[in-house]
Automatic annotation (TrEMBL):
Domain S1 motif as annotated: residue spans: 151-211
PANTHER family associated with the record: CONSERVED VIRULENCE FACTOR B (PTHR37296:SF1)
Top-level taxon of origin: Bacteria
Alphabetical list of Pfam families matching this protein: CvfB_1st (PF21191), CvfB_2nd (PF21543), S1_2 (PF13509), WHD_CvfB (PF17783)
Record-given protein name: S1 RNA-binding domain-containing protein
Similarity comment: Belongs to the CvfB family.
Length: 285
């Protein structure tokens, strides 16, 4: 009998703390807390095998969708920095996804509530671990996107991180790629993100941007600059001729985006520029 598998066993006998099940050669305990429906001696039952908290082979009538060789989305329920993350597969015992299978940078690890596409694997001590879906596994479940979904808004879960960008699986089942230039910050593994489709490839894969559309970004940038001005009493030592690196350091936006946002505020008569400074107009104070 192997942990992480579903087997049919015969109920051999009842004991004060549960039932012993057998395959004719080996017995395994089905604890009363794992009995979800009435069973009797000599009955055949289908159970999932796992190791309990003391490392003993045990059985449960709860059959998880995640098994050895069988994948599903599972939720992260605990994070241990020097160990990994624990996911809930429907059992009383949560399953560890080892830190060896997670990003090298801790800030990119999944947090509680994030989702991972997992199956199970067994180590040399017969302990169950979560096994993340590979690129091949994700391609096997993906649905090709049609050209008409271009520019649509989408939600998806990050399942793979690369230096060049992040891969996601959308709610519709499309495989998507977010290039590093199409995001403000790198999303976590397992994080749900919202974006828009900016390209549909011939193979049905999509390219996704997490950046707002131009008019949305313009409003956001203008609001950020105006709020910064208000926080400084109405004046700041930045204007449309400020150095790009100074603008980037203070506002995390390009000089082009900064000038467009500043231009919008001036057009709306909210601000004015004077000798390297930008001031909120009196009518806006």
């Amino acid at each position: 009998m192997k942990v992480g598998t579903v087997v049919k066993l015969r109920v051999a006998r009842e004991v004060p703390f549960g039932f012993f099940l057998t395959d004719g050669e080996e017995d395994v305990l089905l604890h009363h807390s794992e009995v979800t429906e009435p069973i009797t001696v000599e009955q055949e039952v289908q159970v999932f095998l796992y190791q309990d908290h003391e490392g003993r082979l045990s059985a449960t009538l709860t059959i998880p969708t995640v098994q050895i060789g069988q994948y599903d989305w599972v939720e992260v329920v605990e994070v241990k920095k020097n160990l990994g993350v624990f996911v809930n597969i429907g059992l009383k015992k949560d399953i560890l996804v080892s830190m060896d299978d997670l990003p090298a940078i801790f800030s990119l690890w999944p947090t509680i509530g994030d989702k991972l596409y997992c199956s199970l694997k067994v180590d040399n001590k017969n302990r169950l671990y979560g096994k993340l879906g590979t690129e091949e596994v994700m391609r096997a479940i993906a649905i090709p996107a049609e050209p008409q979904v271009f520019n649509k808004n989408i939600k998806g879960t990050v399942y793979r991180l690369l230096l060049a960008g992040s891969f996601i699986m959308t709610e519709e089942g499309y495989m998507g790629f977010i290039h590093e230039s199409e995001r403000k910050e790198e999303p976590r593994l397992g994080q749900e993100v919202e974006g828009r489709i900016i390209d549909v490839k011939e193979d049905g894969m999509i390219n996704v941007s997490l950046l707002p559309r131009t008019h949305e970004q313009l409003d956001d940038d203008a609001n950020e600059i105006f709020e910064y001005l208000q926080g400084r009493g109405g004046s700041m030592p930045y204007w449309d001729k400020s150095l790009p690196e100074d603008i980037k350091r203070r506002f995390n936006m390009s000089k082009g985006a900064f000038k467009r946002a500043l231009g919008k505020l001036m057009k709306e008569n909210k601000v004015r520029q004077e000798e390297g400074w930008t001031h909120i107009n009196d009518n806006e104070k």
